[in-house]
Amino acid sequence: MGPPGSPTPEPTVVNGQVLLQSTLTDAADSKAAQQTVPQLREIFAAAQDELQAPVLLVATTVLSFGTALGVAALMFNHVFHFPGADPAV
Predict the structure, then answer these.
(1) What is the C-alpha to C-alpha distance for residues 30 and 80, in angstroms, rounded to an integer?
(2) CA–CA distance from 27 to each of 3, 5, 57, 81 (Å)?
(3) Rounded to an integer, what distance in angstroms lies between the CA atom of residue 40 and that of residue 22?
(4) pTM for this structure?
(5) How far apart are CA 6 and CA 2, in angstroms?
(6) How far apart are CA 49 and CA 39, in angstroms?
(7) What are the pLDDT digits (tens) for 38-84?
(8) What is the pLDDT of residue 20?
(9) Do 21 and 1 form a contact (C-beta atoms < 8 A)?
(10) Predicted confidence band at 2 (pLDDT cuts at 50, 70, 90)?
(11) Contact 12, 18 (CB under 8 A)
């Protein structure tokens, strides 16, 4: 970080994680700063949840489909002994 008006430095990335630094406009030991920090944490947690939820939803859908397909194959091959369930056909 440099003086005001200096160019923004590149972000610090360690093991795929980005270090975020910020400076409060209020004094660090003030009541306003004590209220600002939890609000910032909520914003970052919400942003993380917004990214994780769609990925988790797609992953569980794919897993569910694969599981259903596998269970159906086991039933057709080993329980019902259907002749048309040969994967070579």
Answers:
(1) 72
(2) 19, 22, 42, 75
(3) 10
(4) 0.43
(5) 6
(6) 15
(7) 998 888 888 888 888 888 889 999 999 999 988 888 888 888 888 77
(8) 76
(9) yes
(10) low
(11) yes
Residue 23 carries which side chain, given as an amino acid letter? T
Question: Could you identify the residue written with the tokens 């569910």?
Answer: 64
CA distance 70 to 62: 12
Per-residue pLDDT at 31: 92
What is the b/e burial string over 63-75, where b = at least 16 CB atoms within 10 angstroms of the residue's CB?
A: eeeeeeeeeeeee
Residue partners of 23: CB distance under 8 A and separation at least 6? 1
- Contact criterion met (CB below 8 Å) for 36 and 27: no
Average pLDDT over residues 15-34: 86
Rounded Cα gap, residues 63 and 57, in angstroms? 10
| Residue 25 main-chain phi, psi, to 5 deg | -80, -20
Alpha-carbon distance of 86 to 30, in angstroms, equals 72
Look up tokens 């048309």; give the residue: 84
